[in-house]
UniProtKB/TrEMBL annotation:
<dbReference type="InterPro" id="IPR036968">
    <property type="entry name" value="Enolpyruvate_Tfrase_sf"/>
</dbReference>
<feature type="binding site">
    <location>
        <position position="99"/>
    </location>
    <ligand>
        <name>UDP-N-acetyl-alpha-D-glucosamine</name>
    </ligand>
</feature>
<dbReference type="InterPro" id="IPR001986">
    <property type="entry name" value="Enolpyruvate_Tfrase_dom"/>
</dbReference>
<protein>
    <recommendedName>
        <fullName>UDP-N-acetylglucosamine 1-carboxyvinyltransferase</fullName>
        <ecNumber>2.5.1.7</ecNumber>
    </recommendedName>
</protein>
<feature type="binding site">
    <location>
        <begin position="128"/>
        <end position="132"/>
    </location>
    <ligand>
        <name>UDP-N-acetyl-alpha-D-glucosamine</name>
    </ligand>
</feature>
<dbReference type="InterPro" id="IPR013792">
    <property type="entry name" value="RNA3'P_cycl/enolpyr_Trfase_a/b"/>
</dbReference>
<feature type="domain" description="Enolpyruvate transferase">
    <location>
        <begin position="7"/>
        <end position="414"/>
    </location>
</feature>
<comment type="similarity">
    <text>Belongs to the EPSP synthase family. MurA subfamily.</text>
</comment>
<keyword id="KW-0132">Cell division</keyword>
<dbReference type="InterPro" id="IPR005750">
    <property type="entry name" value="UDP_GlcNAc_COvinyl_MurA"/>
</dbReference>
<feature type="binding site">
    <location>
        <begin position="22"/>
        <end position="23"/>
    </location>
    <ligand>
        <name>phosphoenolpyruvate</name>
    </ligand>
</feature>
<keyword id="KW-0961">Cell wall biogenesis/degradation</keyword>
<comment type="pathway">
    <text>Cell wall biogenesis; peptidoglycan biosynthesis.</text>
</comment>
<keyword id="KW-0133">Cell shape</keyword>
<feature type="binding site">
    <location>
        <position position="335"/>
    </location>
    <ligand>
        <name>UDP-N-acetyl-alpha-D-glucosamine</name>
    </ligand>
</feature>
<keyword id="KW-0670">Pyruvate</keyword>
<dbReference type="GO" id="GO:0008760">
    <property type="term" value="F:UDP-N-acetylglucosamine 1-carboxyvinyltransferase activity"/>
</dbReference>
Amino acid sequence: MDQIVIRGGQRLKGRIPISGAKNAALTLLPCALLTDEPLTLRNLPRLADVDGFGHLLNQLGCSTTIEGSRPEDFGRVMTARTTTLTSTVAPYDIVRKMRASILVLGPLLARAGEATVSLPGGCAIGNRPIDLHLKALEAFGAEIELASGYVKAVAPGGRLAGGKFTFPVVSVGATENAVMAAVLAKGTCVLENAAREPEIVDLCNCLVAMGAHIDGIGTETLTIEGVDRLHGATYRVMADRIEAGSYACAAVITEGDVELVGAKAGEMEATLAALREAGATVEGTKSGIRVAMSGRAQPVTLSTAPYPGFATDMQAQFMAMATLGTGASLFTETIFENRYMHVPELARMGCDIQVKGRTAVVRGVDHLVGAPVMATDLRASMSLIIAGLAAQGQTEVNRVYHLDRGYERLEEKLQAVGADIERISAG
Ligand code: UD1
């Protein structure tokens, strides 16, 4: 298996191009199931999860073609066309490897009136149930059965009737599935306490470009008036705010100065506020956001929350940054129950972190020492990279496939701003 080796201590300086957002791509791709016309997505990141999703679409009868697949191209263009659905089943083998596969449930139900999707099961960061996805679809008229590890959803008469659902807990994935199911309903569907993440705005804007009628985009109440059919569209995937935030943390911990090219400040205010709290200079530039730091980070107090709150997907990276802070930082994780798995690995590098239930206290230490560490999930892996960039000596990050799911050409982007980082291929 590949390994990433970092010799820490280099200050990051220069420009980092920010890729298309993984989490937006993973909800825009299944939109191709909603129409028989082509959907062209621009600025798609080159990531294992995006390729995996493409294969799932192929299994359902969607043909995909990719341009811009030269190794030097950032931002690929994929045209996906589902002239006819050849299957409405997302099998266990695919869903098990890629949780986001659950996002074909809504579009298949909308287009074919039925869908059979394997239950995703638990994952490294918690139980992650899908009960809210199913309850929202039921509220719109779907009949749902669970059997042999699969969810089977049927829309009586071939189309969802419409209805109203109030989320008891904000869920990004359940909001996405419900919106994609609703766009072809017979009647009107209303979602209350819907997630407002920028990736959901991206999804809604793409669906509107395909002919959907959605009101309240960007708010917690979405009203979707079903239409008889959607048409094709060309749509550009938004910039990855989590990737941008991750490199910002890397810049702060190395006391660097980077420009995150393509990043949009309006989509990552909570992250930028946290960077300022740590003492970083954060300013908009013509092409993105500049993050610069001199001296060690000041302590931060951060609690994760649904958007526009501080993103759970940024917690591990800020924690890595805080390990070299000037005092004690306090983290509270409110979204996932098991999202501190980076802590024992960071401890191997000399960090002082105490976890108690959902909170973690990080006391800044004078220096970190490189060590062999193991990535446990995507964002936890990035926290190890960030710590490694500032640690004395060599850090070897193992199980790099987690990083490949969500960071496009990580080592290349970091090398270009001065990091001493390389991938050792297993061959
Ligand atoms: C998405 C993101 C992930 C991010 C998370 C929270 C993608 C592909 N993934 O994940 O990177 O960390 O949002 O911002 O976009 N829940 C239920 N029942 C459900 C669904 C969710 O109880 O049916 C709970 C979850 O266990 C969790 C909370 O709701 O505690 C939020 O999860 P959710 O927003 O659904 O996360 P994902 O969509 O899986």
